[in-house]
Fold:
Amino acid sequence: MYSLYAYPPLGVLGLAFNVLFGGHRSFHADSKRCIERLSPPLQVSGEENIPQSGPCLITFNHYFRPGFDAWWLALAISAVVPTEMHWIMTGELTYPGKWYAPLGMAGSRWLLSRFRKIYGHTTMPPMPPRPKDVEARAQAVREVLVYMKEHPHAILGLAPEGGDHPGGRLSWPAAGAGRFGLLLASRGLKFVPVGAYEAEGALCLSFGPAYRLGAAHRVGAARELSVPRGLPPEEKDRQAARIIMQNIARQLPLHLRGEFEPQMKGMNTDSPKFIFI
Structure:
């Protein structure tokens, strides 16, 4: 048995109104209303690691199983972070192998563009990357950098994998994810890894300690995990992605870690412990 994932009727009606007629909504408030309806309730581990303010980037796994909608991951994280987050999300659902894919893709582009306006998030082309999306992806990166400049204490959210994977096991993100992480790190963002999955019928989140990617100096208590200098761009991208994914893996049970079983010195490999909220 899994948790009952149900949306608040009044919230759905309000969002539908905004989709049709415009307006702005709080994703944090809408997320809390959804998560409060979970039965059994959301379980959270590592509450002391939940960021209270930025600048930081919350990275999490794109947990998947048939019948589970991935947006519940963003809803759950937004519900427990005590301030409004800025999400970097897909701008299109692709429905691979489905006969209705062309219609579904067109419809999702329209709906997600409306969500973007309502909540103020940044959308990127879907994964895996398509040659036609190069300029759109570059534009999305520029939008994120502009947003960070205008909101220097923002908390961003991103699932580096960008899509579903069989068994929900952690998988490599597409090329460029590590480079994007290094770019954000160069702007002063620390990284907060989160593991998301279901256990004993409940949706679970495990927040790990913050770290800095490629930092040359220590700031506060955040750990420093540097990519060696002098590497070719492709290898630098790969090494940064590995660091990001290994930190997420640390927050997951063993059967979901894929090939990212944490191997860095000092990493705790125990399964997370949870409290109900």
Notes: Strands lie at 43-45, 56-60, 86-90, 122-124, 155-158, 190-199, 202-207, 211-213, 223-225, 275-276. The CA atoms of residues 125 and 136 lie 7 Å apart. The longest strand covers residues 190-199. The chain has one domain: 27-36+44-262.
